[in-house]
Amino acid sequence: MTSYSVDRPGRHRLSPVAMGFLGTLGVGLALGLYYIVIHTGPLPLWITAALFIALGLDPVVRFLVRRGVPRGAGVLIVFLAVAGLVAAFISLVAPITVQQLTLFFQSLPATVDQMSHSPTFQQLDKSYGIKEQLNAGVSHLTSNATGAGGILDKVIAAGTAVVNGLFGTLIVLVLTLYFLVMLPSMKAAFYSLVPASRRERVTELTEDITASVGSYVLGQSTVALLNGVYALIVMAIVGVPYPWLFFCIVVLLAVVPLVGPPTALVVVSLVALTKGWGTALAFAIAYFIYLQVEAYFISPRIMQRAVKVPGPVAVIAVIGGGSLLGVLGALIAIPTAAAVMHLLREVVVPRQDRK
Q: What's the chain's Rg over C-alpha atoms?
């Protein structure tokens, strides 16, 4: 008994038994892949982060290659530069940030108590009852901070977080190095799986997408770093407390487009309120002015070769990506949305326009 029946000359139709078997096999493979992804912990996130970092660094490597540097040497130069920046950040900025984070939590109860005596806070407390909720949150953050058990638990938790963070950073750096070295080979292997009749078109689309994604990752990282440096300078001038701590927070938030910078403005302004309305207002005005300069002058020049996504689509993509994968999802949301839009514009729309 054959596993297919003849539909018409030159074509074969699978029998229901064979179709059911193949369908079951596909479902089994999908469930197996889902099980592997779920039970491998942060590994899929590390792989995704490393791939996007490699795509972001690839334009720099290609720039060196165009200047006559062999690709292997270019990859090594770029990788050592990135590793050096990471090491410099860990050795210089991280200790200051940890120290200021500790001081921030130690002074949090006194800061909240000082704020609670202001007329504005008392009025808000009468209307919304925020004092009780705020005190409960502070108590939860600082509970048992002075007890032996609390100190031990916090030391263990902090040590575990540091070890996990360093291990994850090391894995991402190693994967980034491999991806940078193997990126042309990976693309060539992918192209070889495409039918010869479509290979040229698929190659063109893939190169366009990877180039734009790489430009986006590199450009957005540069914009975020400039944003953080400016915020650090302003915080130091106007007297915002814990400037290095909030420098790191601003950089992390600024990496997330559209949503991140306004969030940073609100967070730092609220912290600046602990020093007075004048400090908060001075920072808010200076940072708001910078955001306008960044939006109309800095970003367009840095991101001119990067992906272009309409505002509403970008906001929806960032919110959806953040809900699914957290910060990493928000970071990769816009280039992913841009890739989908590029495929729709270059593949689907032309097909629909054919008569």
A: 26
